[in-house]
Design a protein that fits this description.
Helices cover about 40% and strands about 10% of the residues. The chain has 15 helices and 13 strands. Helix 9 runs antiparallel to helix 12. It binds adenosine monophosphate and magnesium ion.
């Protein structure tokens, strides 16, 4: 199947217009293809080479419509940094329709009813970040929206300085956000809450259909999925940066990549978003923020689900799911196959030691995946050697109790501890080159993003240690 021969449907348009605005994209000038993800295209049943599809650029640019496509922007509200922000909506995203359980959406495709003071555009640098991060998150096995293609253009876009506009074609099984429900609740459209819940069940949780207390069960699934995604973020060192309720996907997947960062040195208090002066969405704060957002959702859904019952679900499910998923991943990352009494203390001790050592989080685990008895390989990359020196002694004793051979353990650990992580300093290099019309690094990064555990010996430069001056970069929301 060829991408441009896809036939879309638009089930979201069966709702009343309060849910959306029908709007046409505004194409960019002189568009050109920067990158396309064949891996994402597979989700749509596309097996022909995207790069050879002569209509791809026009479709991503919103100039040509796929058969059946009717374009629209979705309406939502949201709590931003703890405050209700009123109506937001897709201010620069336009939906094309659905196929194979995936909703296609253009980001950066022009003004909509919800653009407020914005220009409906996305600049090249943030589009490269969103495109690569989506595919990298998928490569790491974390639920996320995907990115099928990225185009650049000659259109000028005003930010702190003049930049060029770009569009990412994104895919997701759902674009409903916590904030979509918040909009309907805040504007007194309580009957529409149920209509949206039915849509969400149909789209994201069809296996619940016909069960009792279906809305409460839907909420429980949202809690479980969200807790699982956050646990996975914590395990790879991902800091989202803008966990407002309009950036919380209803099925729990990662959505809306802005000033995100993958940790350089392990620092639980790291805040990647420059505008987050209070540190509300710090790396370790993500767990509490997700819980708060889920509580907001429970309150929003209270006209259709008894709030005391959803609170019970939240209390019973969130922490336990988070801790189970997180600890299982940490045991795997440490190469532990069996369970022993003090294993939880072992990984908590490891996190404390990492916090005190000043050490790159990703590099530590990759080196631990080859650890036998020689500690210096790991200690040589710490600023402060002592905490990990002691911890590695405990770790050595513990892995003695495992049945696997050293080689088998190393192989298993290398398959769960990524070599390639999309760090900000690497992304900045790729963005700089892209500004000079050299997109080779974007495409190299796509390759390692989709297979981050493999060696890719020809692409070693993409995992070089972060230079001191580029460590722990914070970015603004400007995008
Ligand atoms: P974000 O922080 O990117 O998730 O955006 C928050 C809200 O602002 C969403 O409703 C976006 O659609 C909207 N928005 C962000 N940037 C723009 C822009 N350049 N033009 C129009 N709307 C925007
Ligand atoms: Mg957003």
């Amino acid at each position: 199947m060829k991408f441009s021969n896809l036939k879309l449907t638009t089930p979201y348009l069966n709702h009343k217009p309060i849910f959306y605005e029908k709007v046409d994209p505004t194409p960019l000038d002189k568009p050109f293809l920067i990158s396309a993800s064949q891996s994402a295209a597979k989700l749509l049943g596309v097996d022909e080479d995207l790069a050879l599809d002569e209509e791809l650029i026009n479709i991503v640019n919103g100039k040509t419509k796929l058969e059946g496509s009717e374009t629209f922007a979705m309406c939502y509200a949201g709590h931003q940094f703890g405050q209700f922000a009123g109506r937001l909506g897709d201010g620069r995203a336009i939906n094309l329709g659905k196929i194979n359980g995936q909703n296609l959406q253009l980001k950066g495709s022009g003004l909509t009813l919800y653009s407020r003071h914005g220009d409906g555009r996305a600049v090249l640098r943030s589009s490269i970040r969103e495109y690569l991060a989506s595919e990298a998150m998928h490569g790491l096995g974390i639920e996320t929206t995907r990115a099928l293609a990225l185009i650049g253009s000659d259109t000028d876009v005003s930010r702190e300085k003049w930049e060029k506009g770009a569009i990412v074609l994104r895919l997701s099984p759902t674009w409903v956000r916590f904030g979509t429900f918040e909009y309907l609740n805040a504007y007194g459209e309580h009957d529409k809450l149920q209509e949206l819940a039915d849509y969400v069940i149909d789209e994201s949780f069809p296996y619940l259909k016909g069960s009792e207390d279906i809305y409460l069960k839907m909420y429980a699934e949202i809690v479980k999925n969200t807790a699982t995604t956050i646990a996975k973020w914590q395990s790879v060192g991902f800091n989202h940066g803008v966990m407002n309720t309009d950036n919380m996907c209803i099925d729990g997947r990662t959505i809306d990549y802005g000033p995100f960062a993958f940790l350089d040195d392990y620092d639980p208090n790291f805040v990647c978003n420059q505008t987050d002066t209070q540190g509300l969405y710090s790396f370790s704060g993500q767990v509490g923020s997700a819980h708060w957002n889920l509580d907001m959702l429970a309150r929003t859904l209270s006209p259709i689900i008894d709030y005391t019952l959803s609170e019970e679900v939240l209390d019973d499910t969130f922490r336990s799911t988070y801790e189970n998923v997180y600890s299982e991943i940490m045991y795997e990352k440490m190469g532990l196959q069996t369970k022993q009494d003090n294993d939880k203390e072992l990984y908590l001790g490891m996190l404390r030691a990492l916090g005190n050592a000043t050490i790159d989080y990703t590099e530590f685990f990759r080196k631990l995946s080859r650890f036998n008895t020689n500690k210096s390989d790991i200690l040589d990359i710490c600023v402060n050697r002592e905490p990990l020196d002691k911890w590695l002694d405990r770790y050595s004793e513990r892995i003695e109790k495992e049945a696997l051979s050293v080689a088998e353990r190393h192989e298993k650990m290398l398959a769960v501890n990524p070599k390639y992580i999309l760090k900000n300093h690497i992304l900045q290099e790729a963005i700089k080159k892209a500004g000079e019309h050299d997109f080779s690094m974007v495409n190299e990064l796509l390759k390692v993003a989709l297979a981050p555990y493999d060696e890719h010996s020809e692409l070693e430069h993409l995992c070089k240690p972060t230079p001191m001056k580029s460590k722990n970069i914070k970015l603004s929301c400007s995008s």
